[in-house]
Amino acid sequence: MPAKIYSAELEGIQxxxxxxxVDLNVGLHSFNIVGLADKAVNEAKERVNSALKNLGxxxxxxxxxxxxxxxxxxxxxxNGTHYDLAIAIGYLLATKQILENDFxxxxxxxxxxxxxxxxxxxxxxxxxxxxxxxxxxxxxxxxENANEASAVYGIKIIPIGTLKEAxxxxxxxxxxxxxxxxxxxxxxxxxxxxxxxxxxxxxxxAAIISAAGAHNLLxxxxxxxxxxxxxxxxxxxxxxxxxxxxxEITKIYSAVGLHPxxxxxxxxxxxxxxxxxxxxxxxxxxxxxxxEASLAHKGILFLDELPEFPRSVLEALRSPMxxxxxxxxxAKGSLSFPAKFSLVAAMNPCPCGYYGDPEKECRCGAxxxxxxxxxxxxxxxxxxxxxxxxxxxxxxxxxxxxxxxxRESDKIRASVEAARHIQKNRFKNLGxxxxxxxxxxxxxxxxxxxEDANKFLASLDKSKISPRGxxxxxxxxxxxxxxxxCKQISAEHLAEAWTFRFKEEV
Length: 506
Hints:
- A hairpin with a 2-residue loop joins strand 1 and strand 2.
- The chain is an alpha/beta fold.
- The chain contains 21 helices and 16 strands.
- The strands form five sheets. Strands 11-12-15-10-16 form a five-stranded parallel beta sheet.
């Protein structure tokens, strides 16, 4: 009767249980792995042979029998090296070199070194969450992945250093206590503080509104005017993550091999280069993986020099900016990656960067300026709630002493968190958490537009505003009202939102 134990496979960021069946048959020696295994899984044969030989037990290549390893369900493509541990233990169980146990409560994941050590794997948190949902009792995996996986409740995470330790644990020869989660903290040293930004009051105000309501922001200005610094400062005023959000973000990072060592405690700030491909930004590939847009989930996706990105990349971001999810379709099925990010973009007004600058003459012709600005499509601009021009800061402002030596971002973060708390209470049990996520119907019923604000909205008939722009204007005004702790949106809030949104030119 074949030996059967359990491992797991990642599909996108979701893990699925995989049965590892090992059977022995009479015949000349052969060692075959079936079940739609990729090259890395097939190479497990050599790693398992060497690890077992160095452990001092009879390895598969010393067996004068046919060894078949089946990874089921067979229609799911198997990728990666984390099947090594399960295959090794399944072989030892099939050859009766280890004692019988109730292996239905165990799940195994780990890559074997040739000397029997376990190396870390991708997707440990994802596997732990699946194992907990499927009512497994123990998850055995490498020590380096233990803290990350132990953030999940309902399963005992057993940290394993070597194959020998794993065998002794399942045979009850040694006791290995389940790992207890240890939160790790740390601040990103690359985040700017708002006190470091001289001048730029309108841009800073737009940045605060963007952080408070998770709105998209576009900054247009000459080189060196502080656009990148403002974008990095936004990361420092975003509210703290809940445990559920931390697990959701960490699952994405773990699935792509960015091992956090624990739960990610701060909101992500991703800044892909202009030469990034479509797949690297939105996700996908032969074995679909999350891209930069998903890695920015619940945080910021910063696109510097926006017009320099390929048109295909920018247009592919339109759907996730609206829906907060990226759908990747392939012949064998579809996968969805979460992508609720705030797009923060920066660009120059023209190729040379000085169009409209009062001090430095622009070298570009009118056609060059128009062609450059038209690289940003109207539908993409329509999804950006806040559009602000960033002008050159005067030298006198740069030389002015900072009267407030304290971190300005800490005070701003407190007001942002207060606004987010208001939104959380507003959207209780609706599955959303920020104003920018409201649907058109929710905007009509939950925004609480005052009488004077309704008069302002009625005056927009001749403004050429699109339906999407109309509702996004109200959402932005709702965030401005939340920052001011106002129950209703007033005409003043709408007027401020209007000044940020609409421009005759980029």
